[in-house]
Amino acid sequence: MEVMEFFKELRRKYAAGTLPVKFIFINVAVFLFVRIVEVICTLFDLNFSLASFLELPSDLTLLFYRPYTVVSYMFFQYGLLHLLFNMLWLYWFGQLFLRFFNAKQFGGLYFLGGFGGAALYLAAYNLLPYFIGKEGMLLGASASVLAIVFAVSAYAPDYKIRLFLVGNIALKYIALVTVVLDLLSVTSLNAGGHVAHIGGALTGWLFASRWRSGKDITRGINRFIDYLAPLFRPRRKKVQSASFRRPLNDEEYRRQRQENITEIDKILDKIRQSGYEALTAEEKKRLFDAGKK
To answer: Domain end: 180, 213, 228, which one?
Structure first.
């Protein structure tokens, strides 16, 4: 029972969390699932690695057979420290991001940052002489996280945060130090990872730059996500409605009216927190119907 309560509490925290928190839940869940599977395989002396099917290969032939890894790699961290630092950055800068932008833009930029990192990584390994003949496997949310970091840093460069042992420091300096370290490390043992970091950072900078010009580069991918989302929602059973319904008495009418008001208030709160675009199609219809009344 305690285990069931624990998982119910996790579900409640996931449902109530902001989008950065939801993405952290997904990353942690993938990490735990992969590691548990590999521990079981090791115990039974099975030569199988689930991680190899989630990493993004630099070999374009292998990528042709595993195109899904362009997405899966950005939700998978193999090491515990790798997971810890990426999730801390995602949480801190995710909350900052939501001060200036909405939740849908966060989600869209997370994917775009991952795609930007993957694109630069693949280009480097297949075009630059230094990487020719070398094989790489890319994993981790770092490119996506750095897209969020650089979007906030480029949009509000003088915004200051307090760092332990350092004090108050402007976001632009954090971004500058981060990108310099990655540039100096593109020939290290983790060369592919640092190249992807730069791709994610450039994507975040591009987002902020275009947003200042009135353009939202996440709009296209968010439309695509909205199109796919209904495919992953459980189908609701159709309920046959009666041809005749008795009139509501006064008490039932007041209760139904209060329920409708509460529901509309929740939708309005969601708009204030995440913007109108964060609403589902059903919520938009509900708000529209209430407006007509």
So the answer is: 228
Assign residue 159 a region: left if phi > 0, alpha if psi is -120 to 50, beta otherwise?
A: beta
Tokens 């609701």 found at: 236
Residue 212 parent element (H or E): helix 191-212
What is the domain extent for residue 267?
Answer: 259-293
User: For 213-232, how does the pLDDT look when each residue is reduced to its tens digit (9 = 90+)?
Assistant: 999 999 999 999 888 877 76
Total domains present in the chain? 2
Residues 220 and 265 in one domain: no
Q: Kindly report the number of other CB atoms within 10 A of residue 192's CB atom.
A: 25
Name the phi and psi angles at 215, rounded to 5. -115, 135
* 211 and 146 in a common domain: yes
Asked if residue 204 lies in contact with residue 150, where contact means CB atoms within 8 angstroms, the answer is yes
pTM (2 d.p.): 0.78
Residue 254, domain member (yes or no): no
- Enumerate the β-bridge partners of residue 138: 56
Could you tell me which of 164, 20, 25, 161 has the C-alpha nearest to residue 95?
Answer: 20
One-letter amino acid for residue 65 of the chain: Y
Residue whose C-alpha is closest to residue 24's, from 110, 100, 98: 110
Q: Is residue 60 located within the same domain as residue 143?
A: yes
> Residue 253: inside a domain, yes or no?
no
> 24: which 2 tokens?
């952290």
From the number of C-beta atoms within 10 Å of its C-beta (0-12, 13-18, 19+), residue 163 rates as: exposed
3-state class percentages of the chain: helix first, strand second, coil last, to nearest 5: 70, 5, 25
Question: In terms of Cα–Cα distance, which of 40, 18, 38, 20 is closest to 30?
Answer: 38
Indicate whether 138 and 278 sit together in one domain. Answer: no
Q: Using one digit for the tens of pLDDT, what is the confidence trace for 61-79?
A: 999 999 999 999 999 988 8
Mean pLDDT of the chain: 88
Residues 217 and 229: their CA atoms lie apart, in Å, by 20
